[in-house]
Amino acid sequence: MKSKGETVRKHIVGTAHQLFYRRGFNQTSFSDIAAAANVPKGNFYYYFKCKNDILAAVVEHRLQAIQAQLQLWDDELSDARDCLRRFVDMLHREHAVIVRYGCPMGSLNLELCKTQPELHAHATRMFDLYRDWLERHFEQLRYTRDDAADLTLHLLAATQGAALIANTYKDAQFLQREADRIQQWIDSL
Amino acid sequence: MKSKGETVRKHIVGTAHQLFYRRGFNQTSFSDIAAAANVPKGNFYYYFKCKNDILAAVVEHRLQAIQAQLQLWDDELSDARDCLRRFVDMLHREHAVIVRYGCPMGSLNLELCKTQPELHAHATRMFDLYRDWLERHFEQLRYTRDDAADLTLHLLAATQGAALIANTYKDAQFLQREADRIQQWIDSL
DNA sequence: GTCTATAAGAAGATAGAC
DNA sequence: GTCTATCTTCTTATAGAC
After folding, report:
1. Under a CB-based contact definition with an 8 Å cutoff, are residues B158 and A161 in contact?
2. Which member of A19, A129, B44, B76 has the lowest number of beta carbons within 10 Å of its beta carbon?
3. Handedness of CA A78, A90, B104, B43 (dihedral sign)
4. Which of B154, B156, B161, B158 is nearest to B102 (CA)?
C-alpha cells in the first residue's frame, strides 16, 4: 500500500519528466511543473529541496524504466543480434516525439554538458545503461571486449546522429531510412 | 572605413557567439554578454532591440563564415571526394571544443527546437549551407539528386552522432576513430 | 553613441498558517 | 501533508542624462 505522499511524489516526477523532455530542463520552471501537475508551488519543497533534486528523481525514475525495458528484451529475445535490432527499433517506435523534441537522453546531455557538469554526470548514467547492455550483446557476437566497446559507441553515435538530423529537419522518413540502414549494418556483422 | 558603432557591434556579436556556444543560448543572459564584452548593459539596446536579435546577428555572422569556408575548400580542392573528406576533417580539427561543448550547430538546434521554433528555423540555416554544399559534391560523384540528398543527411547524421557521443563521454579518441570511419566510408563510395 | 539607474516581471526558494 | 503569501535574486527591457 502506497502512502498518499508517495503517489503525489511520483505524479510530480512524471510530470517533470515530460516537461524536461519537451521544454528542456533549464527552460522548465518550478511554476510550470506545479501548474502541469496541479500541485501548488509551495508544496513542492515538501517533496524536493531544490530543482536539481527533481531532475535527480526524474533520472532515477528513467533509469529504472530503462533497466526494466532491457530486462524485458533479454527475457523476450534469445539472439544477441535480435537484441541489438530491438534497440534500434526505438527509432521507429518513437519517431514522432524524436522528430519533435529529439532524443531525451541526447538533448539532456547536450544541454547539461555546457554549464552543469554535476547534472550532466547524472544524465550520462542513462547512456551507461544502454552502453553496458549493448556491449554485452556485442561480446555475445564473439567480439573482443575492446571491439565490443567501440562498436557500442559507434551504434550509439549512429542512433543519436539519426535522431538529431531527423529532429533538425523534422524528417521522420529520414529517421526510418537511417534506422533501416543501421539494422542492415547489424545484420552484416 | 568602419564606423565606431560597427566595430562595437561586431565585438558584441563575436562575444555572444562564444557564450551561446559555451553556455547555451537560454543560459546566457544579457549581463553575461555585457560583462564578457565590456559593454554596459544599457548600451546593448542601441545595437539590438532584444535578445533574439543578438542570436539573429550571431547566426548571420556564422552563415557568412561558413560560406567563406566552403568557398575556400572549393577553391583549394578540385576533387569532390576531397571536399567531402575536408568536411569530416572538422571533427579532427575541432575535437577539443566538440568534446567539451558539443557541435555548435547541433546543440543550438536541439536547444531551440523545443520551445522556440522561430529561432530554431534560424539555426537550421547553418545546417542548410553544409547540406546544399555536400549535396552538390555527392552529385559530382555521379549520384542522382535523391541519392545525393540521402547520402548528405546520412553524412550529417554520422558527424553529429560522433560529436554527441564524444561529448557525452568526453572521449576525444572515439571522435578521432569515428571520423576515420566516416572518411573510409567516403573513400568506399 | 555611451552609460547609469531603474522599472517590471519571472525565477527559485522560504515561512508559517492550516 | 497541504497551501498561501512572500522574499530575494536575476532576468529582459526602458528612460533619460551625458
Report:
1. yes
2. B76
3. negative
4. B161
On chain A, the residues whose CB falls within 8 A of the CB of B100 are: 113
CA A134 to CA B139: how far, in whole Å?
Answer: 36
Would you call B106 an interface residue with chain A, using a CB distance cutoff of 8 Å?
yes
Q: How far is CA A92 from CA A95, A100, A166, A179, in A?
A: 5, 14, 12, 7
Picking from B174, B76, B87, B187, the residue whose alpha carbon sits closest to that of residue B129 is: B87
Q: Find out whether B99 and B35 touch, Cβ atoms under 8 Å.
A: no
- On chain C, which bases lie within 7 A of the protein's CB atoms? 1-6, 10-16
pTM of the model: 0.98
For residue B95, the enclosing domain spans: 4-187
Give the separation between CA A61 and CA A10, rounded to whole angstroms.
9
First to last CA, chain B: 48
CA angle (A104, B17, B1) in 5-degree steps:
160
**CATH value at residue A138:** 1.10.357.10
**How would you class B167 by CB atoms within 10 Å of its CB: exposed for 0-12, middle for 13-18, buried for 19 or more?**
buried
Residues in chain B: 189
Closest chain A residue to the Cα of B156, Cα to Cα:
A165
Q: What nine digits make up the cell of A48? A: 524536493
Local confidence pLDDT in tens for the 189 residues of chain A: 567 788 999 999 999 999 999 999 999 999 999 999 999 999 999 999 999 999 999 999 999 999 999 999 999 999 999 999 999 999 999 999 999 999 999 999 999 999 999 999 999 999 999 999 999 999 999 999 999 999 999 999 999 999 999 999 999 999 999 999 999 999 999
